[in-house]
Amino acid sequence: MTSWQGAWRLYQHELRHSWAGLIFSILFYAYIALIISPSMGELFQAAEDSEQIWKWLIDFFYLTILPNMGFIMNRVMFRYWHNDPYTRKLAYWRTMPIGLLSLVISRMILLLTTLLIVGTIFFTLQYFLVGGLREAMNPGQYLLFAACWWAYSLIAGSLYMFFEQAYNGKVYFIICLCSLLIYFPLLMLCWWIGFHPVSDSMQLAQNSNPIGAIVMLIAGAAAFMASGHFVKNKLGTRSLLN
């Protein structure tokens, strides 16, 4: 069995046991699309107001929530601190004739497919829920906007994937908490320089300028591949006994 065949079987195994979590993730992000739609609508009513509170609210939602779009929400993700289930799963798999590369590839495939499914539903719902979006951008322009933020989710999700597999549950949980603290100074910096990630990327898409989406997709692909490489190296030396 090749590494890719092993990875595909592991991926199918994970998906069979996580289908309920995937459905929950879809429903959760559908709910997010629903609750932020009024704020998105307000964004278009006063687009020239750089101090508009809705801009900061939408930026906050996008920057903090979208990075988790590629992760299946199930009971396992809420037990990292106490039971460290993913490390235990990795330790079990390493006792079986499963190559290290197969483990890494299967996790990468799971991240990518989850992000594709959940992201497609989230951005599609948002487009149909917010009338201002349909008035401001045609489907092609909105696709550029969505691709930009989907790539952002891939970049952040790849980083989280590395920490998830490279460290034990407690360390990973602490890293996730600390990462939340990074978003606040990042938002403050954006406020200070007058940069609005969502509205500015939207304006770029409205001009049918694909440069933002292209740069972000290239960066996303690079982060995704780099994360897989570093995960493989880390798992090759990581102790799974703690």
From TrEMBL:
Keyword Transferase part of the UniProt annotation: no
Superkingdom per UniProt: Bacteria
Keyword flag Cytoplasm: no
Segments passing through the bilayer: 20-40, 60-78, 98-130, 142-163, 172-194, 214-231
Keywords: Membrane, Transmembrane, Transmembrane helix
Protein name: ABC transporter permease
